[in-house]
Every structure is written in structure tokens, then in C-alpha cells.
Amino acid sequence: MRRRFTVPCLLTATVVAAMLMVPAPAAARELGEMTDYDLAVPVDGSHHLWDTFWASRSHGIHHAQDLMAAKGTPVVAAASGTVRLVNWTAQAHMNADRCCSIVVRHDDGWESVYIHLDNDTPGTDDGRGWGIADGIAPGVPVRAGQVIGFVGDSGNAEATASHLHFELLDPSGTYVNPYHALVAAGATTNAPEPADPLFSGSRLLRVGDRGADVARLQEVLTDLGHRPGPNDGIFGSRTDAAVRAFQEGTGLHVDGLVGSATRGALQWEVAPPDHILRHGSRGHDVNLLQDRLNEIGYSVGTADGIFGPKTLLGVTAFQEDAGLTVDGLVGPQTRAALGM
Q: Is the whole-model pTM more than 0.85?
């Protein structure tokens, strides 16, 4: 089934007509909107994935799903349609130097993109292969589930594990998130999902930053009733205004910077903690603890959201005075005694 490189010499009138068909306009979806689009899993073999649509990459936000699979695993069309581009060209000469990628225009006007196809001869990493199936060329019709190529590590994935980079666009050209659709179609999700990019992260977010943590910040702000703009992973003026509004509403220093205190306050709003606070804990719940201890006369210094030595001394002193077990742990009993 595999070959090094052949291209058709000419396109039939039927194929040309198919390439020129323009689908009827459709309502645009939001960037990154989850979709229930009916598709075939585009990797026909052992694979796994987790939701990487908003993952940060060197070139920006991912806007795709990575299906991890062994090099050479068959890649199939996710839906029936017509091959629009091979290696980013619609010409009969399919640009061997840019191997390997395929774009399929679906019969209903949607579009799927398949990137990092195999560009190596079997058993090597020589960049001299052709990871596109026989007969697949611009203008050729394909059916859902038909083999169109093979998993690889071409393009800017040469230094990564082999995988298929899969994109799905609605008829307006908006990138949607195909994760739920892939799972519904039977894609394997047995890999551990990454930690929350915002609440497990530590970088100071500000205007101009990009990445999955910014996209998650925008999602949280939207859920809390603020208006940071689209969840595009770009910290612009609208996101800055939403952060400042949140900071003002929660009594934080209003500077538009998302550091540990603002992260903790956001996390508190999303999921109020019922866990035990202890030496080393951080976040908005620690801020509240410190404020309360200072208020009732157990001076712990500035409420910085960090459960350090001063906070520990304040907690143990309070526990002793309140007749509680003196262990420095702020659990349900100590919280109740503090009135938190």
C-alpha cells in the first residue's frame, strides 16, 4: 500500500468540478467549541490521546488533537469528502519537500487536517519517505474510514514521539475542538490527562502572554460572570479588564497580574476547599486564614497566601488557647473554631 512518490499527471473534469464546489453558508461556531460532529477515528490502530486543543506550543496555541501512535500506523479519513491539499498544495505536483500533510474538504463543507504524516523510509528517520497512501492527491474523493496516509513525525514534530496532529474546522473555517467527537467515535483516552494548566501552573500571567493557562483563565473568568473575550489563550485588553474586575470584587490588589494570590482566589471561587491547610499550603484559603488570625489577635504578618512559620505559630497558639489538638493543621474543627 505504501510508496515513495508518485503523482497523477492530470485531473479529470469531474475532479475539478468537485474541487470548485462551494458549500452553503453555515453559522460559525466559537473557537475551541466542543463539537458532537460525527466522524471516524482518524488513526486505525493502537493510539491514545488527551485533550490538547489549548496546549501551548512554540508557535502559539495548539487548536488540534494529537493522537499518539506508532510510526506507520494507518491514518484514515475522518469523514467522506474530497482531498483539497496534499503538503499544502492543490497542484498535481504535491511538493515532496514538504511531506507530509493532507487536508480533506468534507461533503458537508467541514474540513479535516492531518499533519506529521510519515516522511521516512521504514525503520529509519531519514526524511526520504512518502507517508501518503496510493492514489491520494488533490481533487481525489475519499470515504470515511479510507486509508489516506500513515502516522509519522514529519515537519516540526521530528523531535517528538510519532503522532497524528488532527484539526477539525466548521464550514466557516473556525477551528473547533474535536476531542468529545473523537471519544464518542471510540478514540482511546487511556493516557493520564495533564493537570489544570492554570491552577497547577506558577508563571505570572499578564497582558501579552499566551498559552493553555491563559485559555483556562479566560474560561474560569467567563464562568464567574466576567467577560474576558473568547477563550483564545491570548491575554489581551479584555482579559486584563476581567482580571482587574475580579480582583476588585474579591478585595485583592488590582494590578491585572495573575499570580499566586489571584490564582488562589479564582480556585476558591471555582471549588471552595474542604481540605486541610498545613505548613506549606498556598492560596486564597490561606489568605483568609491569615486575615482571620490577625483579626482575632494572633499576628501572623502580611496575608500573603503562604502558610509559613509565622502562620504556623499563629495556628498552634490559637489551637492551644481554644483547647484544640495542637498540631498546626487547619481542618474542620479548627476552621469552625476560627469561624471560617
A: no
Indicate the fold that domain 13-185 takes in CATH: Glucose Permease (Domain IIA) (2.70.70)
When mean pLDDT is compared across 107-116, 134-143, 308-317, the lowest value belongs to 308-317
pLDDT at 293: 93
Query: What CATH number does the domain located at 212-270 have?
Result: 1.10.101.10
DSSP structure class, residue 167: E
Q: Say if residues 144 and 78 touch (Cβ distance below 8 Å).
A: yes
* Domain 284-338 indexed as CATH 1.10.101.10: yes
In the beta sheet, which residues pair with residue 136? none
Non-local (6+) Cβ contacts of 261 within 8 A are: 252, 253, 284, 287, 304, 305
Which of the residue ranges 81-85, 244-248, 308-312 would you say has the lowest mean pLDDT?
A: 308-312
- In the chain, residues under CATH classification 1.10.101.10 are 212-270, 284-338
DSSP E strands, 77-146: 81-86, 101-106, 111-115, 141-142
Q: Which amino acid does the sequence have at 288?
A: L
pLDDT digits (tens, 9 = 90+) for 76-125: 999 999 999 999 999 988 988 888 999 999 999 999 999 999 999 888 88
The closest of 188, 190, 189, 212 to 201, measured between CA atoms, is: 212
Q: Which residue has the cell 483556562?
A: 216
The residue ranges of DSSP E strands in 117-240, in sequence order, are 141-142, 147-150, 163-169, 175-176
